[in-house]
Amino acid sequence: MTAQHLLPAAIGLVILALAALNCRAADANGLTNPFFAQDTGLRDGKNKTPEARAETLAILGFAGSDISGNNGVDEMAKAYDAKGVRLFATYNWLPADPNWQPDEGIKQAIKTLKGRDGWIWVAMSNKKYKNSDPAGDDDALPMLRRLADLAGADGVRVALYPHANAWVERAEDTIRLARKAKRDNVGGTFNLCHFLEVDGDTAKLPKLIKESMDKLFVVTINGTDADAEGWRRLIQPLGRGTFDMDRFLRTLRDAGYKGPIGLQSYGIRGDSRANLGESISAWNSLKVQVAYPRTDLVGEDLSAFRQPAGDWLIAGDTMLDPNNDKRLAWKPGRGEAVNGEKGRTKHLVTNAQHGDCRAHVEFMVPKGSNSGVYFQGRYEIQVLDSWGVKDPKQGDCGGIYQRWKDNKGYEGRPPRVNASLEPGQWQTFDVWFRAPRFDKSGKKTADACFVKVIHNGQVVHENQPVTGPTRAAMFNDEKPLGPIMFQGDHGPVAYRRCWIVMGDIPAPCGPSPAGPPAKRAKSTKGKWSAFLLGGS
Q1: Contact 174, 500 (CB under 8 A)
Q2: CB within 8 A of 126, min separation 6: which ones?
Q3: Residues near 49 by beta carbon (within 8 Å), at least 6 away in sequence
Q4: If you ran DSSP here, which 8-state letter would residue 114 be given?
Q5: Which of 249, 403, 436, 444 is 20 to 30 Å from 113 by CA-CA measure?
Q6: What is the pLDDT of residues 133-173, one digit of tens each?
Q7: What is the rounded CA–CA span in Å between residue 62 and residue 4?
Q8: What is this structure's pTM?
Q9: pLDDT tens for each residue of 42-52
C-alpha cells in the first residue's frame, strides 16, 4: 500500500481497536470457539509488562493468551484477571527422558492454571531418535504420565505441541502419544503452520481432524500461503495469504471441534497491536462466515455454471505460454477453468444466484489480457494485466468498472492502489458485496455496494456504492439476486479456487496493509487440489 493511503500510526491503532470491538457484535451463529493469541504476537517490545499484554488483548477482543516458559506466570495471571482475559497455557520444551522430574517452574504454573481450564503445552525433543519415530515413545511416556498426574491433581491438562524439526513434529505424533499415555488430561495440538512446513498435504486434513477428535485439545491457525516456503509466508496475520481458511474452519466445525483456537504470530514484523487487530478482525468475519452455505465454483467440471459453456474447459497447471507471453498454456488436470485455445468465448455464468455475499476469486491473465468478475451479473470488478501501472484508473485491475450512457462512461472507481502482479501469476480478489435493497413495491431503497475488496492482500475499495449496472453487464435492470459472471470474450484468462458464501457477512474491520511479496505459485497438483476442491 502506498504511503498516502496509510493512516498515521496512532490514529490507525485506535481505529483497529474500535473496529475490532465493533465487529465482535456480529457473531450470528458461527464459530463460538475461544480465540486466543499466542504470546509470539506480543513480542514487539511494546508489551513488556503483564499489564500491557493484558490491555492489548482486552482492547482488541482476544480471549487471552499463553506464556512462553513459566517465569512470572502468577503475575501474568493476576494482570489478565484484572482485564477479564484468560491465561490459557504455559509453553515448555521438554526432553523425552524417562527420568525427567518437574521443576519448580512447572509446579507453579500448574498451581496458577488451576481453575482456569488451562493446559501445560509441551514441545518435545529426543536426540536418540529421528523425528516422529514411535521408537522413542517408551522414553517419553513415563515423563508424560508423571507430568499428567501432577497436573491432573489440580484439574490442569497437558497438550503436546507439534513443532517442525522436533521429535514430536506432526499432529499425528501428539495424538499417538496422548492415546498411549492413557490419561484423560493428556491430548494433542494441531498447529497449521507446522503442519504445512512438515507435511503440507491438505487433502488429508478432514480425515486427520476427524480421527483426532478424541484427543484434540487445541488448534492454532494463522494467515498463510497455499504454496508457502519460508516462515515469513508460512506465518502471516490472519486473513492474508492464499490458504483456504474458510474451508479449514468448516472442517473443524464439521468434525465437532469446540476447543480453543490460538493465533500463531511467530516472526511477524511490525506493530503488535496493528497485526493482532488485523487478525482479530479477520477472525470476527470468518467465524460468522462459516455459518452460511458455501458454493465452490471451479472444480472437476463446469457443473456450477450454465451450459453450454462455450470453449471454457477444466485444466491444471495453467501458466504463460512459453512461446507467446500473450497466451496461456496448461496441462490436463482439474481445478482451473480456462477460456479455451482462442482466449475468446462466451461468458461463464453461475447457476447459483446471490444477494449479499462474500466471494473469493483467483485468476491469471497473460500479457495485455482482460476479463472481469460481475457480481449479480451486473457490477464488475475489473480483471486486467495492469502490472506496473503507476496511476491506476477505473479500468485497471481491481477497479469498479464505469457505467455507460449516451456513449459516455461515468461513475467508475479506480482501485485505491495498484496491487497487480506480473502476467502469468495467480492473483486473488476477496470481495464483500451488499446487494441493492428494494421495498415491497419493488422500488430501490439502497444501492448495491462493494463493502470491501481486497486484491492480492491489499484493500482497494471500501464502502463503494454502485448506482446501477456497469458497462457490458448481463442485465440493464437491478434485482435482489443475480449470478456471478466471469467475462470470457476479452482475452485469455483462467480462474481457480473460486467460491461464494451467501449471507450478511461482516467484512474485516479496519485497514489491511499489504502482505509479503507474492511469488509464482508452484504446481498444486496432487498436493493441494483435493482439499481445495473438497476431497477427503
Answers
A1: no
A2: 95, 96, 136, 139, 140, 167
A3: 79
A4: T
A5: 249
A6: 999 999 999 999 999 999 999 999 999 999 999 999 999 99
A7: 30
A8: 0.89
A9: 988 889 899 99
